[in-house]
RNA sequence: GGUCCGUUCGUCUAGGGGUUAGGACAGUAGAUUUUCAUUCUACCAACAGGGGUUCGAUUCCCCUACGGACUACCA
């Protein structure tokens, strides 16, 4: 019987999610939806030392903003609750015990100092890969080397100990990665990983295998940084006798810093010149403890659709020439086989381009709301109708929602200064005279449409014997103060004939001829 | 150092034993526009190197180089 597809996104709440994490979540989500399965969110908080308050909430909010819906998780619950590993603590012990009973794991009583000494000794002896393994475990203090009685005694006391996996000395471990094909690693390259820490918490390796099994996960889609430890996970499935239902693995290519040196990390914050986080993050400096703010895509004005579309294409493509995809289209077209193997760099230009595309596709009435919100903040009255008109003429010229207000202020405020270059070149007595006459007649004009205003202007200029091209730049600067903007006739029409006339008169008075 | 993964225009990528190696972003030029932007058109620009296999390799294999990940009682 075909198993229901179940995938999980399993972040550790040690800070904000960065865009690489969002992409991992996205690919998991796309696969789940594509195959009619379930998307789980599991919080991997087994390291109590690295707990960061607010991180879990941030992760959930970021996913929600991005449009990645969770079917089972800490918030929504589900048949395999709880979905926080710290709350599942009692469940892991028995599996570690099972491994000990079957001879695949053992107790180790070495102190951190013992381990340091061991590593130092191996390094001094020029051992290529100092690790706790099939060879070195014989020289350490563990249930393999100590007499049985002593082990029992130690366990009965409160001497701290860990449980380690007994990795075979010589064995090829292989698995098939959905993206990379067969991956083979020799067991000698894997060390005797700690499964249970001395604080009673499982490590990632144990917890993730146990939870994936219990939660009936069918596909593990995670970052490439997990590739080297995947064989270890295969070994765990085998020793726990779960190999027949072991999930399929897919290791995603990393997201690199734009200069190509190293993977993107959350510590990059704002250092790269673009946000690495979906949402703004309020944290604190690791050394000084000072509060810090890292910018986010949401606050920078990126639309989630654009952000997601861009992110989906970082390491995946549909094989067609289509660039713009809604979430539903992404789901429809997604396949894990088309994820590329090689790492990708973030391209700021392209995210911006995506944002412009999605912004322009929105109806004017919706875009007008961005402007209206900014106007309210500045205590400026504006009818919805007027805001819709402005949005309509401005939409081709903006990248972010906040650009509407920034670029369109002259619709509400008369210019306080005028572009000097245009004035020097285009402002002269005949022009001023013609514009003055235009301004005198404009308020009485019955047709206030762009075409009507144009007709009046043409009429006035004809009387004066001036060509329209000679005065338009001057007129624009007189009305708006700046040289660039949407169609001037439409601009004047939106500003209103009375206000436009007044602005022209002001300019005629103030500017030298 | 060791293990593993990767390498097509500046960037994201398509392709795949015989192609004018395709698209998108960026860049450049032109057209449109009263301006700027948009839009349109064109241009620029890539198979890391060396060996094989083959009639023929950018494509398959090997080596080298380069890049990256991992190498914790972190995930």
Automatic annotation (TrEMBL):
Monomer. It comes from Hymenobacter roseosalivarius DSM 11622. Residues 375-507 form the Aminoacyl-tRNA synthetase class I anticodon-binding domain. It is an enzyme of class 6 (ligase). A motif ('HIGH' region) lies at residues 11-21. It catalyses: tRNA(Glu) + L-glutamate + ATP = L-glutamyl-tRNA(Glu) + AMP + diphosphate. A motif ('KMSKS' region) lies at residues 263-267. The keyword RNA-binding does not apply. InterPro entries: aa-tRNA-synth_I_cd-bd, aa-tRNA-synth_I_codon-bd_sub2, aa-tRNA-synth_I_CS, aa_tRNA-synth_I_cd-bd_sf, Glu-tRNA-ligase_bac/mito, Glu/Gln-tRNA-synth, Glu/Gln-tRNA-synth_Ib_cat-dom, GluQ/Sye. Keywords: Aminoacyl-tRNA synthetase, ATP-binding, Cytoplasm, Ligase, Nucleotide-binding, Protein biosynthesis. Catalyzes the attachment of glutamate to tRNA(Glu) in a two-step reaction: glutamate is first activated by ATP to form Glu-AMP and then transferred to the acceptor end of tRNA(Glu). Its EC number is 6.1.1.17. One of its GO terms (molecular function) is zinc ion binding. One of its GO terms (biological process) is glutamyl-tRNA aminoacylation. GO terms for cellular component: cytosol. The lineage of its organism: Bacteria, Pseudomonadati, Bacteroidota, Cytophagia, Cytophagales. Residues 4-272, 295-353 form the Glutamyl/glutaminyl-tRNA synthetase class Ib catalytic domain. HAMAP family: Glu_tRNA_synth_type1. ATP binds at residue 266. Pfam families: Anticodon_2, tRNA-synt_1c. The keyword Kinase does not apply. This is Glutamate--tRNA ligase. Belongs to the class-I aminoacyl-tRNA synthetase family. Glutamate--tRNA ligase type 1 subfamily. CDD domains: GluRS_core (cd00808). It is found in: Cytoplasm.
